[in-house]
Amino acid sequence: MPAVADLPPQFQKRVACSIDAAVKYEIPANLMLAVAEQEGGKPGEWVRHPNGAVDVGPMQFSTGYLRDLARYGITAQDVAARGCYPYQLAAWRLRMHIKLDQGDLWTKAANYHSRTPQFNRVYRAELMLKAVKWADWLERHFTTIRRPAR
Predict the structure, then answer these.
(1) How do the domains of the chain map onto residue ranges?
(2) Mean pLDDT for each 10-residue chunk of the chain (150 residues)?
(3) Do 89 and 69 contact (CB within 8 A), yes or no?
(4) pTM for the complete prediction?
């Protein structure tokens, strides 16, 4: 994907994987890129929070979601792995929030982080700023086709 060549090497994989996952799961690419930037995890990373929750891997998947993934044979090691698979899992999860949760798009997307209103609000505001930045970046680097309204 030549458009990522202008990014620092440490971000190229994140961007390429995020765009690919967004296309696959039919979610806005700028939203997926914003979540990936906001989470900012690294492969193999495990972050323990004071409340006991643990976030795993490049997309900082909460271990609370691992129980849901286990029924599909997906493990914490899969979520923490290198490569694009953790981004695919995150895009799947974002799509589920967008389809099933209540609220506007931004609140639903911020549920990726937390459904607790005070934490959701902060994450939502940061996500919106990042999504605007990524929408501009995508516009500069990719030709997009806009479908006419029906």
Answers:
(1) 17-140
(2) 70 92 96 96 91 90 87 92 94 96 96 94 97 93 71
(3) yes
(4) 0.89
